Amino acid sequence: MLDIDEGRGDYFMAESASRDDRAAASAEATRIPAPILPFLIGFDMPAAVDSSDQYQRLAEFYYELRNSIIPEGGAQEYVFAAVVRNAASAPPGERRIQSLAGALENWARGGGSPIPSDIFDAAYYSELAGQDFEDERAALSHWLQKGLGERVVPTRTFDAEFYVAANPDLSAWSNWIFLHYVYHGRPEGRLPSPAYASAREAESGEADRAGTEAGPDSRGEEAWAPVLSAPMVSRLLGYAPVDRIEAAVVERMSRAFDGSARRLGLRTEIERHLLAGILGQLFGQGETGERAEVVLAILEAWGEGGRTPDLLPLFDPAYYAEAAGIAFEGPDAAFGHWLREGVGKRIVPTPFFDPDFYAGRNPDLAGWQDWIFLHYASHGFREGRPPDCFVNPSWIRMRYATGSVSPLQFYLAEEAAGRPVQPAPNVGPFRRAGSSGELLTLRDFLILRRKRGLFPFGPDSELQAEIRKAAAIEPRIKVVDQARLFTLKPFDSPLYPYLTAVQQRVGEADILVYRDSVTFGGVDRVLLFTLRYLEQKYPEARIKVVSFGPVDSRQFTRHHLRTEFVALDALVGNAEATVRRELAFDSALGSGAHTIVNMNCGPLWDAIQIYGRRLTERARLFAFMFCDDRDVFGNVDGYPTRYALDCLPFLNKIFVDSYYLRDTLRARFGDSSFLRSRLSVFRTPFDFRLRELGAPRPAPSNEGPVVAWAGRLDRQKRPDLLAAIAQLMPEATFHVWGEPVLDRLDLRLSSLANVRMMGLFDDLSEVMALAPDAFLYTSEWDGIPTILLMAMMHDVPIVASAAGGVPEVLPETSLVRGLEDVPEYVARLRAAFEAPEPLLEAQAGKRDQLRNLHNFDVFSWAVEAI
Q1: Burial level of 653, CB count in 10 A (0-12/13-18/19+)?
Q2: What domains are there in the chain, each with its CATH number?
Q3: Tens of pLDDT along 502-553?
């Protein structure tokens, strides 16, 4: 609950985002950034685009090309995405995404550039630059990183003087005019040169579509636009690509728009274009034909004296009347006055727009000299850009599945109906201070915020200037970044009681190692040897392991480590993700540590992603990564996917446990010398001497061959494959060890007659004591699985999926290359029953190789940078 006291201006946030909210925010963070998405697929995004299969394919090839052309990203990425978008010719929707994904895949796989020559002509740009480029990618990269800043037009097709003269609505455009053509003009059907204009007229026979003004109408009054220009039609239809529209539709739309403009008292070309842009933002949903019908219906009803369309949140009549100091007769009078006079005076007509926030969050607008609200009214609203730090349209769209309704219209409609929804992550309900606890609408809160001067964190505000000065002295002071939605917590928020307790618990240290939890799984085995290495290298250092989850340090105690373990689960177990991130950052700097190691700790990854530069001012940063993960839809996810690229500039080294992950990261982010210098492959130390287990416990005589399977009964380990294999092998008995940890799956295992559910195990020796005839491993994704290293210590044939780094520790005779190839698993298991010697011999050879790699000396050499 956000508490506002009008007299004191005190406030606090005590309502945390729910688990579902955090999951939605996490899902959003793994996809193409919301501000970039409209530039990539066009400003007419279908609902739930980022959950479609074609979107995932598009994202994969977009990032592959983006990372090879502009690896640093930044403001150049907006231009790159807009340039690439012009490779798709399909109409808006899923077909456009599919078309663009296909074009980018072909380009990424060695095909020619799909970018039209009127946007970027590699040969022509090569002449201008005076150098030969290896291919189109190299030329485009050079233009984006150098030519773009020097305003070099990379095509002989574009004529700037013609373009400005042909489009009078662009007279106020103060940015580089070629960027307008790239961003908006080409999709809107605007012509780049007289040659293109002549070709278009010859093709269509409709020269009057150029948008010239006509003479007086039959009523003897000035006629403003009896035939709408192509750009005007495009604006009314929400900036959709418009090649040609039926003459009858244009005629009706022209008359209806003319009536609406008359009703508002609009007489200039610029005023009418602004009106068309706003209407296109609000009512331009759906396919082109549907948009035309919606816009026509609204304009005809309005022009004939019907109800004024609901223009919120772009225009709030009551708010504007107060700002202008005028009492208007109705919404039409207020709206017309704003278009005619308020725009010139730069009066923002809605409390939902914060100019400082909008400018700071959108780096592609850095050169925008015109009134920033006009960009939001003409483009930003439809593009889904957040207008204020308390409103995130992308969040609303994903969280509540708004469909074809714009997120802000959906929010306002739900609030008006008494069903308030969350407008952004970490933003809860608002109420006034005092005993009554009167609830405030977001509109009322934003108005009060501006009146009381709350949250004055604009880039030029005095408070922000003071914060920057303080941050230059003390890295723990965080400069408010307008590129992110508002997450700063006030001093009386729950963060600060957490912070005091956490800093007292962590205390001072020289070296901090962060973990999600310590349970002595595969990652914690790596942790053990890392701590042993650190203690040997820094015998006087204060070393601490900070865990945000529970700590089971019994396995470490018997190794006589002097490292201190700090468990924070009792303190922060219920804290939201953003609070954990802040605690990781503050505790790391508060400890005074000169070395910080991230051993699979999500809160610290979040902190490095946002505050990495500040952390490097005080400490060296290192991280261990083990493998990608998958989300519930099967999409690639996990720490390497989410954080590797963003955090790489701040890390001295990333240590990975397999060459598979190293090569995956190189392929994903570009095999640059910078990336290669940051990646180091380590091998977890293991004693590969065969274990003597004594006399095995006899199995029941009716069980036949025994197959052991051990691990987590979670999606990653594919227990469904195990069930399918067991069904095809009724002659064998399957001993299944383990329990679900991360997932709750509907398993068929316990219902199968030849499956024995054995429960948890303390050590793999317990599994092997039952003398299985084979050991089965069915993981879908992995690094170097610790359990397979343990299995190699026992003289038992192993059959495993070739996932991730598994082929690095098992011979080819043990591997099933097709993950879903159930008959192949069955065939290899039966071969192991009948003739185990060849498989055991191959495993023995591989074990001898691993013995020379997986030892403490080699491990210490791999991580010596710490």
Answers
A1: buried
A2: 32-218 (no CATH), 498-681 (3.40.50.11930), 706-855 (3.40.50.2000)
A3: 888 898 999 999 999 988 778 888 999 999 999 999 999 999 999 998 888 7
